[in-house]
Structure formats: structure tokens, C-alpha cells
Write a structure and sequence with these properties.
- The chain is of the alpha+beta class.
- It folds into 3 domains: 117 residues, Beta-Lactamase (2-Layer Sandwich); 74 residues, Helix Hairpins, CATH 1.10.287; 152 residues, Heat Shock Protein 90 (2-Layer Sandwich), CATH 3.30.565.
- It has 9 helices and 12 strands.
């Protein structure tokens, strides 16, 4: 009678297999992404984190070149020239720490990332490839940009408050004298037309002063519980009355209560609706949504965790070029605008003073979407 022979692996071999399993588990489950490439940048394998960032499996990515997932590489000629430069640099330094770039996922959305790149060598010290550690820094960059913008606007607003007060007194005197002179001449007098033009421009300057006053911190908030849905509806209809632009509303049921300064929020909404109308000279639709929204620490939104009312205003206009999107709330920015750069800067300042956030997404040629988050009252 034969007995089964059990062949046990040598102790060293068992330990090697266990170690391989251990490091494989670390590679696949670590929070940071890992990409392994050959010596010219073709992807050999990736871990779970990279699959999550890109929305592609290891099988999908195997054989692709790094340039296929780095949109900035396509700006170079030839196509893979940027990646070639990376590999040239790493061959000289043996290591690249915190190289910042962008990854493109399957939905054509980008994430800002940091690469740390190390060389892989065989036993003869021949370079066989690289190991790239990938850290998603999209949220960090958003927070840094938000902080920088807030500091810049804070310094400008302090100056704006003083200027607005002095200029308001000057304009009041100018307008008063124009009205006095108009009372002494006939409306048929050609000088009356000049005075009317001067008055119109002075009133425009007054409007600019009002924007400066709102933009500065000299004007406080008079917050009270009010119907934001009613304000949204009435301001949209009034702002777009007589234009070729229509609006469609989509409001969720049981909207959370919000305390806000009615006059200042009306100013924000009017600015956004006028901005949308100017972007659609041939007409179109503005979609206006309002919903309850809970922000937690896992969302890439620089606000405290809690309950918010989220307002979405989406137009069908020409959109904003990606290179300008981060600058539209800057009071000095006026690229392609017919209106003062203070319009959106004031809107940003007002929402900020409400402890909320206004942000924007846009695709050139496909419209612009503004998002407003206002803190909702706790139950």
C-alpha cells in the first residue's frame, strides 16, 4: 500500500514566499499610488490607489505609456518628450522627489499629484525601470489657493474701504452741482446733453463705490432667517426680464433654513445672472438648482463640516478658458469681460462673510457653472 508523500518546501523558500506576499499586500493597499514602469516609461503595473485615481484597472493600464495619463506631456513635441526629460533627469540624479504634475482619469478629469521617482536596477546595476510614488494633492492645492485668494482680497478690501468713503463724498458733491446747473438751462441746450452724460457716468462711479463698499469689510451683515428660494426666483426673473435668456428651476423639497443678508445675497445673485446673460448673447437656458448638502472631511471643499444649502447656477454660454478660471474672483481680473472685475470679487467677499463658499467650473465652449454653499441652521 502506497502512502502519499508530502514534500515540504525548505524553510528559506517558505520565508521568501511569505515575504513576497507581505510586500505585495503593502504595494497594493497603501494609500499612496504606485506605478512601476520599464526604463522608457511604459507601465508594467499599478496598485489599487492608482486604479482609483484613474478609473482604470491594472490590465487597462498595462502597456500604456506614462504620457497617456499625463495630459501635460501632450503639450510637448514629440508626444513623450516630457516623460523623456524626466527619465533623463532621473538617470543623472538617481532619484526625483516631489515632481508635480497632473493625471488624467477615464472621465477626462484631472488630479494634481506629486511624483517621487526611484530607479529600478538589476544585479548588474543596469536600469530596468522606475517605481513612482504618486500622492494626490488636489485638495491641498485647492486649500492653498483658497487661502491665498482670501489673504489677497483681505488686504485689498482694507484699502477699498478707505477709498470708497472718500470718493463717495466727492461724487455726492459732483452730482449735486450737476443737478443745480441743469436747473438753470433748457433741456434743448446742447450743454444739457453734456451734463446728462456727466451725470450718467457719475452714477456709474457711484455704483462702483457701492461695490467697493460691499467688497470691503466696512459693511457688515444684517443676517436673518429668510426664504432663499423666493429670493432666487425673484432675482432671476427680474435680472433676465426682457432678455433672450430663460431660466429653469429645480428646488429640492424640505430645503434647510438659512440666515443671510438679503440685500447682499441679492447683489451676488444679480451679478451671477447678469454674468450668465452676457455669456449668451444669442439666448439660452440658465439652470438654477437648490439642494441640501452635507459637507464632511472626505469632500474636497474648503469648508467646515456641517449642513449647507447648495445653489447651482449653470449657463450655456461660451465658458471660461482653463488658464483664467482661477483668476475670475480677483478684483484686477478683466480678461474678456464687459464689466468691472469687482463684480465677482464682491460676490466672493459677500459669500465668504457668510462663512460660505462660491466656486466655479467651466469648459470653454460648453458653459459655466457657479456653486454657492451657505451654512444651514442646525436642527
Amino acid at each position: 500500500m502506497c502512502k502519499d508523500t508530502i514534500i515540504q518546501k525548505p524553510d528559506g523558500e517558505r520565508k521568501l514566499a511569505t515575504a513576497q506576499d507581505f510586500f505585495e499586500n503593502i504595494f497594493m493597499t497603501t494609500v499612496d499610488g504606485f506605478i512601476v514602469t520599464d526604463h522608457v516609461g511604459y507601465i508594467i503595473r499599478v496598485n489599487n490607489a492608482i486604479e482609483g485615481m484613474l478609473g482604470l484597472t491594472s490590465q487597462d493600464l498595462a502597456g500604456k505609456h506614462l504620457a497617456d495619463i499625463i495630459p501635460e506631456a501632450t503639450k510637448d513635441t514629440p508626444y513623450k518628450d516630457m516623460v523623456s526629460r524626466i527619465f533623463l533627469e532621473i538617470s543623472e540624479k538617481k532619484f526625483i522627489d516631489r515632481f508635480e504634475t497632473t493625471l488624467l482619469n477615464v472621465e477626462n478629469k484631472t488630479s494634481r499629484v506629486e511624483f517621487t521617482i526611484s530607479l529600478l536596477k538589476d544585479k548588474n546595476s543596469t536600469v530596468t525601470g522606475t517605481v513612482i510614488s504618486v500622492r494626490d494633492i488636489t485638495e491641498r492645492r485647492m486649500l492653498e489657493q483658497e487661502l491665498l485668494r482670501a489673504k489677497r482680497l483681505e488686504s485689498i478690501s482694507a484699502l477699498a474701504g478707505g477709498i470708497a468713503s472718500d470718493f463717495d463724498s466727492i461724487l455726492t458733491t459732483i452730482l449735486g452741482n450737476i443737478n443745480i446747473v441743469q436747473n438753470f438751462i433748457s433741456t434743448d441746450d446742447k450743454n444739457f446733453v453734456y451734463l446728462a452724460t456727466a451725470e450718467k457716468e457719475a452714477l456709474r462711479a457711484k455704483d462702483l463705490i457701492n461695490q467697493l463698499t460691499t467688497f470691503s469689510k466696512n459693511r457688515g451683515l444684517l443676517k436673518k432667517k429668510d426664504s432663499l428660494i423666493e429670493v432666487l426666483t425673484s432675482v432671476a426673473q427680474q435680472s433676465l426680464k426682457g432678455s433672450k435668456v430663460a431660466c429653469e428651476f429645480n428646488f429640492a423639497a424640505d430645503i434647510w433654513a438659512v440666515e443671510f443678508d438679503r440685500e447682499q445675497i441679492i447683489q451676488v445673485l444679480r451679478s451671477l445672472f447678469m454674468n450668465a446673460e452676457h455669456s449668451m448673447p444669442e439666448g439660452g437656458i440658465i439652470n438654477i438648482d437648490a439642494e441640501n448638502y452635507f459637507i464632511d472631511k472626505h469632500l474636497n471643499i474648503p469648508l467646515k463640516q456641517g449642513r449647507y444649502l447648495k445653489i447651482t447656477i449653470k449657463d450655456q454660454g461660451i465658458g471660461i478658458l482653463n488658464e483664467y478660471i482661477q483668476d475670475i474672483f480677483d478684483p484686477y481680473f478683466k480678461k474678456g469681460r464687459k464689466r468691472s472685475g469687482l463684480v465677482l470679487a464682491s460676490a466672493y467677499s459677500i459669500i465668504k462673510k457668510h462663512n460660505g463658499l462660491i466656486s466655479v467650473e467651466s469648459e470653454f465652449g460648453a458653459g459655466t457653472t457657479f456653486f454657492i454653499y451657505l451654512p444651514a441652521q442646525e436642527v
